[in-house]
Automatic annotation (TrEMBL):
Biological source species: Litorimonas taeanensis
Lineage start: Bacteria, Pseudomonadati, Pseudomonadota, Alphaproteobacteria, Maricaulales
NCBIfam families: lysA
EC number(s) recorded for this UniProt protein: 4.1.1.20
Stated name of the protein: Diaminopimelate decarboxylase
GO terms for MF: diaminopimelate decarboxylase activity; pyridoxal phosphate binding
Matches recorded under Pfam families: Orn_Arg_deC_N, Orn_DAP_Arg_deC
Amino acid sequence: MRHFDYKDGEIYAENVPLRTIAKAVGTPVYVYSTATFERHYSVFAESFKGIEALVAYSVKANSNIAVLATLAKLGAGADVVSGGELARALMAGIPAHKIVFSGVGKTRAEMRDALRAGIRVFNVESEPELNVLNDVALEMGTKAPIAFRVNPDVTAGGHDKISTGKKENKFGIAWSSAEAAYAHAATLPGIEIVGVDVHIGSQIDDLAPFEAAIAKVGGLISRLRQAGHTIKSFDIGGGLGIPYGDNNKTPPPPSEYGQMVKNLTRDMDVEMIFEPGRMIAGNSGVLLSEVLYVKKGEDRDFLILDAAMNDLIRPALYDAYHDIEPVLAPGSDAAEATYDVVGPICESGDTFTKGRDMPALKSGELVIMHSAGAYGAVQASQYNTRPLIPEVLVKGDKFEIIRERPTVAEILKSERLPDWLK
Ligand code: LLP
């Protein structure tokens, strides 16, 4: 259930008409539903009832501190990939012992901040990174808890750009070097081995690649234990896909994913760690936008929105599908139309969809793009000097702005003329 549905002829976010938000905040704007975040988190967490598990929400999917605080209240941990995300997670009240730090290029400063905070585990992606982490930990008179992110060489993920678990991807320690990497880590006085980590891709719509990765890692865990290493945790990353409303395969529900994980890891004697991002945030948010113009082209009609690729880049970057609906329910006799839905940016790539059949719309009408809660606002830019659009969080019949729309003056404030141009 999306909590963004028609009621009395118009779309509401929970109990707030989207028209009210558009009027109060202006468009374009991201609108999130607290109830949906809570529901997705609980459904996911409950599918692991009965086993030791940490759900470390992948902050990159939607990192607004109000979103993180909503999840923190439910007991969520966090998967962070930068010092900035670490700061957000801590600020939102996620305890350090529930924070895991992933990413292929951690800096010394980020390692220091994470060690000072006392995070649960560093997911280390290379031996050079391990050596630097060892140095930093020793300088600070401490030990860094680590898991190696291993690359199991399985194919998964909805698009080439978001597939990460194949050997040609930059991620993780090569499968064939994993045991040697653990042997080396065991010799380092600033390092404490605690687990194994994988993340094979994103928008995965079938369980088979997860099963393949879990089976491979299960074997690795046995071999590592035989070699004398202590493996307490198994982090299987994120990646479970969500329905986007197109005709692609529908991903399995979290309950099936949970059952599969429980079955396959039953005898492993590990604490499981999960890093879901999209599954929690994707359908918890929409992008609310106004139709600026309907333009008749030579052979097609363009619906020109006030939102653009800088606000939601997924269609341009991954050919992603987002459901588009008018905020006012079309009457039963409403005319149908076929549109290329585009933004105002000066690039042909600024196209949300081509040849989409939908109710005919007029300038000034509101539309939403569904499934924009994950990898929407976080991937936005100010290209064409378009201010980052605001984010609004709804809870029941209340809503608040959780990130303001900057003014153009605020954007320009950080730029400087060099002396010779003054
Ligand atoms: N853990 C790690 C180490 C990751 O790299 C990612 C996502 C996740 C967890 C969360 O994966 P999820 O559960 O959200 O699939 N911008 C792209 C998605 C990039 C995913 C990057 N890594 C998109 O808009 O589709």
